[in-house]
Amino acid sequence: MVIELMKSHASVRDYKEKQLTREEVSELVAAAQHAASSHFVQAYSIVWVTDPEKRKQLGELSRNAQQMEGAGAVFLMCADYNRLKHAGDMQGEAISFDHAENLIVAVTDVGLLAQNLALAAESKGYGICYIGGVRNNMEAISDLVGLPEGVFPVYGLTVGVPNESNEVKPRLPVEAILHENAYDEAKYKTLLPEYDETIQRYYQERSTNQKVATWTQQMATFLRKPRRPDLKGVLAKKGYLFK
Asked: 19-23, 159-163, 205-209 — which is least confidently predicted?
């Protein structure tokens, strides 16, 4: 059942030495393409990195060497208005994508595409993991795989046969994210301490990498200072000017 498959997701970071075939990759990507797309712009592209040396460099640049070199398939999930510029040229129209709305559309399209690909892969028994680390060196990674103006990597996605079995990490309770008719932040005073207890118990009882931590502690540490402050400048070079 699809819902049960979705609820069983856990990130996989250690894979067996089996590479996905071209046919398998084509099947997964074809399924992923059936994700919804704003106004059908399909503002995305996928770079499938198969060259061993490029995968090695990608691992170094993203600070995820084990995953990039060990996965059965490595994808760069990219926002892409370059193809749309070509479409405009065919119709004699100059395509502009330098407004904030265009960035939101592209990133949303990539997210929906990636999640469809991930779900398709998991339905076949593969494990997956998103790699936000590709944004650590977005410009260098763009150069590595030849991404032109209008195209940038949003995240990596690794796929492969799992060499590990991880417990499913408890998510926030539905009540914490579902608001009816109006946003209700008062409930966080009760729900967040309860969730901290759940997460702390999960970390202490899971089979590997036990630790003492709560969700609010981790979030406070993670968000206390800006991350990747160079991104606005890098995106501007790609043509995304946030107008």
From this structure: 205-209
| Domain 2-166+226-237 part of CATH 3.30.390.50 | no
Q: Under the phi-then-psi rule, with left for phi > 0, alpha for psi from -120 to 50, and beta for the rest, what region is 40?
A: left
Letter for the amino acid at 18? K
* Residues 78, 154: Cα–Cα separation, whole Å: 5
- Spell out the domain ranges in the chain: 2-166+226-237, 174-218
- Structure tokens, 233: 């400048």
Q: Rounded to whole angstroms, how far apart are CA atoms 239 and 96?
A: 9
Residue 10 has a CB neighbour count (10 Å cut-off) of: 15
Using an 8 Å Cβ cutoff, are 157 and 77 in contact?
Answer: yes
Show the 3-state SS of 125-179. Answer: CCEEEEEHHHHHHHHHHHHHCCCCCCEEEEEEEEEECECCCCCCCCCCCHHHHCC
Reported pTM: 0.94
**What are the pLDDT digits (tens) for 27-68?**
999 999 999 999 999 999 999 999 999 999 999 999 999 889
Residue pair 84/41 in contact (Cβ under 8 Å)? The answer is: yes
Helix H or strand E encompassing 86: helix 82-90
What is the rounded distance in angstroms from the CA atom of residue 110 to the CA atom of residue 152? 11
Query: Of 234, 243, 239, whose CA–CA distance to 94 is shortest?
Result: 239
Q: Which residues are CB-neighbours of 55 under 8 A, at least 6 positions away?
A: 49, 68, 69, 74
Which residue type is seen at 108? T
